[in-house]
Every structure is written in C-alpha cells, then in structure tokens.
Design a protein that fits this description.
By secondary structure, this protein is mainly α. The chain has 3 helices and no strands. The chain starts with about 25 loop residues before the first helix and ends in a 10-residue tail after the last helix.
C-alpha cells in the first residue's frame, strides 16, 4: 500500500523553538511522569497535520472518488473476471 508522507524530510532533527501555552496542571503531571513535552507535542501536532491533509485531500478529490465508486458499482471492478481470490 502506498502512503503519502506530508513530512518528506527524513532528517527529523530539524527543529524550531516556539512558545506554547499549556494547562499548568497537565504540564506538572506530565513532568512528574517523565513525559518529554516537546516530543509529545511534536508527535501530536504531526498527527493533526497528517489528518488535516488527508481530510483536505479527500475533500479535493470527492468528485472523482464518488464518480469512481458509482462506476464500480455499475460495472464492477476493472479486471474482476480474472481475479482468482
């Protein structure tokens, strides 16, 4: 299965300092638990960006996807008669 990587740079060491406003209680608990705040925020933000890009891609391609699904429903899958499974 092909997957789209919205972060094609493999060098994950590229970082930029930024300011965040976080809930003080949650921050204190995270520190007590030894959670790396930067790493956790970075991973969560990457996940959110990936989800949003996927949502936008689906929205941009909805017409094609709906048309392809309609054709597939009416005509079946291409090369379906040669399937062995």
């Amino acid at each position: 299965m092909l997957t789209y990587d919205p972060f094609p740079t493999k060098d994950k060491s590229l970082k930029k300092a930024t300011n965040l406003t976080l809930n003080t209680e949650v921050l204190a608990e995270a520190k007590k638990l030894g959670i790396n705040i930067s790493k956790a925020c970075d991973a969560f933000l990457e996940s959110l960006v990936r989800q949003e890009k996927e949502r936008l891609w689906k929205l941009d391609n909805a017409k094609f996807i709906n048309e392809y699904n309609r054709i597939t429903e009416e005509e079946g899958l291409p090369l379906d008669k040669w399937r062995t499974f």
